[in-house]
């Protein structure tokens, strides 16, 4: 009977989660060569291919997608066990007021906060969602989570993780415009747009010296990622979605990632940062929460 140990599953989880052997190797403190050998050993043990390797990136096979879903559960369980073992509830009492974008908050931040509060019963949370950035030097927040490429220079910014932006569509819509995607030409494909402000930023895809432009008049614009995703799953249009928000739908086959070898520019940031006040103005409970979020983002 073929079996994998927990360590192999954790290794594969980091590769699937980062989408990069180089990034996963850095997280695991392994060389890229050593990690590649470990993945090949896992594939050999299972008797199937898990990764499709190119000179530029890697992607998962169908078997890889299925294994990644189970590996993610093992990684979550291990992280929660480490949290309890570390005794982070000591000397970390009080209220932490947090501002975060709603999509990022629902998918990434909310489950982490629930786990942290379970292990730290003396911590209470005031969590408010907003796509518009707050000024924590003036507004009543201890911590702001933001997706941006350039955080403000008057606060301390700790990077949590990188964000990739994917052009996604339902399988039905992709099939309807298969000829356009094969060309490729996305100008005729309807768009459901995510926009923090009232206007949708132009969606441009680049590869080498080539450029693709999406249609300028979207069928829907919303500052709520769930609304945009709903429109995409109902085949009303394709959309640019952050990888942390679209990954599970892509893994489950509800959405397809279109033109994955093209670079997507939709005017959004490419990093998630935790922002807090500098120096002694930051309470210990806030610092420990940021440390916990950083560990869970690696």
Number of helices: 10
Hey, roughly how much beta strand do the residues contain? 15-25%
Number of strands: 15
Rounded Rg: 20 Å
- Main beta-sheet annotation: 5 strands, mixed
Can you tell me the overall shape?
Answer: globular
Structural class: alpha+beta
- Helix content class: 40-55%
| Straight-line N-to-C gap | 32 Å
Indicate the mean pLDDT: 86
Q: Report the uncertain regions.
A: 87-91
CATH fold-type name of the largest domain: D-Maltodextrin-Binding Protein, domain 2
CATH architecture of the largest domain: 3-Layer(aba) Sandwich
Number of domains: 3
Characterise this structure.
The chain has three domains: 6-85, Winged helix-like DNA-binding domain superfamily/Winged helix DNA-binding domain (Arc Repressor Mutant, subunit A, Orthogonal Bundle), CATH 1.10.10; 94-160 and 271-297, D-Maltodextrin-Binding Protein, domain 2 (3-Layer(aba) Sandwich), CATH 3.40.190.10; 165-265, D-Maltodextrin-Binding Protein, domain 2. It is 41% helix and 23% strand. It has helices spanning 6-18, 21-28, 32-46, 62-85, 102-119, 171-176, 178-182, 225-233, 243-252, 284-297; strands spanning 51-53, 58-60, 94-100, 123-129, 143-148, 156-162, 165-169, 192-194, 204-207, 210-213, 220-222, 239-242, 256-258, 263-265, 271-276. A five-stranded mixed beta sheet has the order 4-3-5-15-6, with helices on one face. It has a three-stranded antiparallel beta sheet with strand order 12-7-13. The longest helix is centred in the N-terminal third of the chain and has 24 residues, at 62-85. The chain is globular and about 55 Å long. Residues 87-91 have low confidence and may be disordered.
